[in-house]
Amino acid sequence: IKPIYESTFAKLKAADIDQEVKERAITCMGQIVYTFGDHMQSELQVSLPLLLDRLRNEITRLTCVKAITKIASSQFKLNLNPLLPEAFPVLASFLRKNQRALKLSSLQLIDTLVKNYRDYLSSETIGIILNEVPPLINESDLHISQLTLNMLTSLIRSHLAFLAIIPQTILPEALVLV
What we know:
By secondary structure, the chain is mainly alpha-helical. The chain folds into 2 domains: 1-83, no CATH class; 88-178. The chain is built from 9 helices and no strands. Helix 2 (19-36) packs parallel to helix 4 (61-72) and helix 4 packs parallel to helix 6. The longest helix is centred in the first third of the chain and has 18 residues, at 19-36. It is globular and about 55 Å long. InterPro entries: ARM-like (IPR011989), ARM-type_fold (IPR016024), CAND1/CAND2 (IPR039852). This is Cullin-associated and neddylation-dissociated protein 1.
């Protein structure tokens, strides 16, 4: 795996390469970490901050969200300290964007992170996410509404302290769907 990782990392790190090569490098790195993450703890300390940088880049963010979703759904309990909790405010801001694919992927990623890495979520981070959620629950896009409600359900299950807060802010929007 070392030669594959090093080759992919070199492409991921390069700034002057074609857009398609960047996206493939991000996707490949996500797959490498997903599959071999338990054998590459030292490499994670270098590659995850780079993925965070790519997450902040407007051109590569959708591909990066999908790659991080893959990483977060790995069967291994990986150390995502270099990536989380800094990624949560960035992901929350994506819920505001007018790109449907980015919203859908971000909701799936947040849900996966809440289920598998809930220890990285602070009350402040949850508050940032909850501020972006109410406009997503509406009848104009039921798929986004469904993913939002799924994510909120996961959030309530993992952080019971928000059991009283989430229904207060979300229930009015959810009742409009009924």
